[in-house]
Amino acid sequence: MPGAASGTAPRRVLVGVASDENPEPMLDAAFDEASLLGAPIEVVHAVDPGPLEAVLDAYEGWGETWRAATLEGVRADIARWAAAHPTVPCTTHVEDGRAADALLRMARADDLIVVGGGPTCARPGACWGRCLTSCSARRPAR
Where is each UspA domain found (predicted)? Predict the structure, then answer.
């Protein structure tokens, strides 16, 4: 962090989870930090339809059903951590687009962002995955 920078305590913990990696390390870290900070958690799952976009457009209503099912899956994944931390307010949503882009669109200057390093990473921040690299490259420390 630059010497002239000043820090404040995060007011929210923003955590990105993916369906292709184990969310436990990210959720453990996010709920632990939120408990210590007395801050709420916002869990985000980014959906980048890519090749599915044409299919989503072709079948009216299917895209909404798919997103609703994805949101329910994300909520089911975090239910265990939310139950273990009943004093931590937690909301979830699904955002369209690449993971790093979705997190950065939602991020505020006073957020603590928790992301994993990818499917081969044992703990958050231990290695530089695409989302972590993208977020840190475009969001300088304040």
Answer: 11-116
CA dihedral 75, 40, 1, 118 (to 10 degrees): -10
What torsion, rounded to 10 degrees, do the Cα atoms 85, 89, 94, 95 define? -130
pTM for the predicted model, two decimal places = 0.70
DSSP labels, 51-63: GGHHHHHHSTTHH
CA 22, CA 13: separation in Å to the nearest integer? 19
Task: Check if the beta carbon of residue 89 is closer than 8 Å to that of residue 6.
Answer: no
User: What is the average per-residue pLDDT within 86-100?
Assistant: 86
The one-letter code for the residue type at 64 is E
User: Both tokens of residue 82?
Assistant: 């939310």
Could you tell me if 142 and 109 are in contact, meaning their C-beta atoms sit under 8 angstroms apart? yes
| DSSP secondary structure, 90-129, as one string | EEEEEEES-HHHHHHHH--TTEEEE----TT-SSTTSS--
Model pLDDT, residue 57: 65
Distance CA 103, CA 5 (A): 23
User: What's the whole-number mean pLDDT along residues 112-129?
Assistant: 58
